[in-house]
Design a protein that fits this description.
Helix content of chain A: 25-40%
CATH superfamily of the largest domain in chain A: Response regulator
Radius of gyration of chain B: 22 Å
Distance between the termini of chain A: 46 Å
Shape of chain B: globular
Largest sheet of chain B: 2 strands, antiparallel
Structural class of chain A: alpha/beta
Shape of chain A: globular
Number of helices of chain A: 11
Strand content of chain B: under 5%
Largest interface: A-B, 46 and 50 residues
Number of domains of chain B: 2
Radius of gyration of chain A: 22 Å
CATH architecture of the largest domain in chain A: 3-Layer(aba) Sandwich
Low-confidence stretches of chain A: 1-26
Distance between the termini of chain B: 18 Å
CATH topology of the largest domain in chain A: Rossmann fold
CATH class of the largest domain in chain B: Mainly Alpha
Largest sheet of chain A: 6 strands, parallel
Order of helices and strands of chain B: EHHHHHHHHHHHHHE
Oligomer: heterodimer
Number of strands of chain B: 2
Mean pLDDT of chain B: 91
Number of strands of chain A: 14
Number of helices of chain B: 13
Structural class of chain B: mainly alpha
Order of helices and strands of chain A: HEHEHEHEEHEHEHEHEEHEEHEEH
Low-confidence stretches of chain B: none
CATH architecture of the largest domain in chain B: Orthogonal Bundle
Chain lengths: ~350, ~350
């Protein structure tokens, strides 16, 4: 609101000057924090959790901050405009919360050296662009253990979004943990090629259940698969947030994304001028990956086993990708005692033993 | 009791004015909506309709957003005039983007003037090849082109995600499904420094003129129009219906394909799993909003583009939800249909017959 209507020249030139003015000259002005979301804030999953993080910033800093969000921004030509409009309207710190926003974020960041950018799940950094992500695969180890112990049909249905390393890593971490407690169990994967489409996600859940899956897990953002699971009387795991409201009997637990403390911390750094470009990949130990109460149908021994994994990951005695590991053909790919480093994890494009079907390439 | 009675001769003038009236009512209804939401009405009006285009950058963005809508809208309205219902422009757009990107990536090391023209040529062929399937099925087997063109869109989406996750993936991109960023030789020249307005906007304007001339001043354009209004008469006049179906679909496919290329070689600069926020579908609305007339499509495309930009701007400056964009677009269509009803029908009040 402050400058609109007055930008008559190239937008970035003016805004660069203005943002210096806002930050340095008038430090009483609230720090403006902008968010770009890929889905609607009401998705009850990925975007919803980022928006809780935004609300945490408001709760923490009150009048010292002003937050803005733009929801359901398509990953394509539109993203750059939204990010640029946020940067040129006086925002000091901008979080872009989907992988597809990486190149537009970096592009805009070059034109606004005084605005700070935070991009979730990407790998390109600049002096004013940080990246952050969570080690959700650690959570997959916990729920994989639970699934291995609880399945009767030895078939788990996995609803996957896009065949990117993040998702493949999750499938593998889940499968490895599952096979440790139940070597006969296998994972069936359905790719829905979307992050958020309740209709498609529900259809995928139905197909998987019809094919014998008695536990459903997902790497998509809507609670639709849990609703199907609840209806059909099978178990499921929530994604991104506690989805037990949609599946009170079916949800065993959920892998919750908790960005609140990271967002508060980064905003504080932006306010007091200590913000610097970093790369953060937080796991269960940092609180970025969290779990709600176990579901009502989780037996005591499964709870206990899940806790052992969770605590083992926190104290580093357990690693989700610990050898010996075999590929789908049964050949050893990682020797006993060895673990994959972050480099392998970040580019993971193969399945481990126990996953059915071929990875789309 | 109120009854609708068909007018003998609907006003042609009102037919053209209907979109303007609909837009006016939409803005009024929108202001009422803002007032009900407790948002200062003038601020909201400014944020939605003025702010997005009050800067040079904003104007450029209007062009970036409207160009594909206008291009495809003009091509589709030519087909719709001939009663050829190409609903799959989105798929043809994607195929054009794929074909053009394939050329860009194949000539990745080449820095020459012919890279961009080659990409454009490939994208036109790509879009046409995708439109050829419904054309063939329609002319050979009389299969409804609405179904086939629509369904091919989903095939195109899957083909695109297969390609960006496999053969066309960036070798240095950590296996993420996107292509390399195109070189300068493979990206469209910008028309204006400081904006993203690219040469595609000029092509869109050119197509408006070409489309207008084609429909009103050429025999083929006349044949297409006759085929739409009176297919039998067209047959007696010696116009080959099969050829007209092919022509309409090829025009749509070629234009949508080129629009797809302009997206990847313009504002995006690489091939992504999602390159179009539904331009091929929105262009159908644009075509009808523009009364299937190229000049009308030009304005309809600009209005539609503004509704997207306004929605973003209202989110940023007033913290209004995104749903406001959908509500505006929905109201615009609703009021257009409502005014159309009143143009074609008159309301007559009939006294209920007394029971004797």
């Amino acid at each position: 609101m402050v400058f609109h209507g007055s930008l008559k020249q190239a937008a970035f030139a003016i805004a660069a000057v203005l943002s210096i003015g806002v930050v340095n000259a008038q430090s009483d002005d609230p720090t403006k924090v902008g968010f770009v979301y890929v889905g609607p804030v009401s998705d009850h999953g990925w975007t919803y959790r980022h928006d809780l993080g935004r609300q945490a910033i408001e709760a923490q800093f009150g009048d010292k901050v002003e937050t803005t969000y733009v929801e359901s921004v398509p990953e394509g030509a539109d993203a750059e405009r939204v990010i640029r409009n946020l940067a040129s309207s006086g925002h000091d710190l901008i979080f872009t919360t989907s992988f597809g926003f990486m190149n537009p974020t970096v592009k805009v960041a070059k034109d606004f050296p005084d605005v700070k950018f935070e991009h979730a799940t990407g790998f390109k950094r600049e002096d004013n662009v940080s990246t952050y992500a969570a080690r959700f695969y650690e959570g997959r180890s916990v729920i994989g253990t639970m699934a291995g112990m609880m399945t009767k049909t030895n078939t788990i249905g996995y609803i996957a979004s896009f065949p990117i390393p993040e998702v493949v890593r999750g499938i593998n971490a889940f499968t490895i943990a599952m096979r440790k407690v139940n070597p006969d169990a296998t994972v069936k994967v359905v790719w829905v090629n979307t992050w958020y489409d309740p209709g498609k996600e529900a259809d995928a859940a139905k197909v998987l259940i019809d094919q014998g899956a008695d536990i459903i897990t997902q790497h998509t953002d809507s609670p639709a698969p849990l609703q199907v699971a609840q209806e059909r009387g099978v178990f499921a795991f929530g994604q991104a947030s506690d989805m037990s409201a949609f599946a009170p009997e079916s949800q065993l637990t959920s892998i919750v994304d908790d960005w609140n403390s990271y967002y508060v911390e980064r905003t504080a750094a932006a306010i007091d001028g200590t913000w610097a470009s970093t790369d953060t990949w937080g796991g269960i130990d940092t609180g970025m990956v969290a779990f709600p109460e176990y579901g009502v149908n989780v037996p005591d021994d499964v709870r206990a086993a899940a806790e052992v994994i969770r605590e083992g990951i926190i104290d580093k005695s357990i690693h989700p990708f610990q050898g010996p590991l075999k590929d789908q053909a049964g050949e050893e790919i990682l020797a006993e005692g060895e673990i994959y480093d972050d480099g392998v994890l970040l580019g993971m494009n193969f399945y481990v033993e126990g996953v059915q079907g071929d990875l789309p390439k | 009791m109120i009854r609708l009675q068909k007018r003998a001769a609907p006003s042609a003038l009102m037919g053209y004015l209907a979109p303007v009236i609909a837009l006016f009512i939409t803005v009024l209804a929108g202001l009422v909506l803002f007032a009900l939401l407790g948002v200062p009405v003038l601020d909201a009006f400014h944020a939605f309709f003025i702010a997005p285009i009050s800067t040079l950058y904003g104007l450029g963005e209007l062009g970036v957003k409207a160009a594909p809508l206008i291009m495809i809208g003009v091509a589709l309205s030519i087909g719709f005039r001939a009663q050829v219902w190409n609903i799959g422009a989105e798929g043809q757009l994607i195929l054009g983007a794929i074909a053009g990107s394939a050329v860009a990536l194949a000539l990745y090391e080449v820095d020459a003037w012919y890279v961009l023209p080659a990409m454009m040529f490939a994208s036109i062929l790509g879009g046409m090849s995708w439109a050829a399937v419904p054309a063939l099925l329609r002319t050979r087997f009389n299969v409804n082109e609405i179904l086939t063109s629509l369904m091919l869109t989903y095939v195109a989406v899957l083909l695109l995600s297969f390609l960006v996750a496999g053969p066309m993936r960036d070798p240095d991109g950590f296996n993420f499904p996107e292509s390399r960023l195109f070189h300068d030789a493979a990206t469209l020249p910008r028309l204006w420094g400081g904006t993203r307005l690219h040469a595609g906007a000029l092509v869109a304007l050119g197509l408006v003129v070409v489309g207008w001339v084609f429909l009103t001043r050429t025999l083929l354009g006349f044949a297409l129009r006759v085929n739409g209004t009176a297919p039998r008469a067209a047959g007696y006049a010696g116009f080959n219906q099969g050829r007209l179906v092919w022509l309409a679909l090829m025009i749509g496919g070629a234009t949508a394909g080129l629009a797809g290329l302009f997206e990847v070689a313009g504002p995006i600069g690489q091939l992504l799993p999602s390159i179009s926020p539904g331009y091929g579908f929105t262009a159908i609305i644009v075509a009808f909003l523009g009364r299937l007339h190229p000049v009308g499509v030009l304005f309809a495309g600009l209005v539609m583009a503004l509704s997207y930009l306004g929605g973003e701007s209202a989110q940023i400056t007033l913290n209004l939800p995104l749903a406001i964009t959908g509500v505006f677009q929905g109201m615009l269509l609703f009021f257009l249909l409502a005014t159309d009803v009143l143009i074609n029908y008159s309301i007559v009040r009939k006294q209920p017959r007394p029971v004797s």
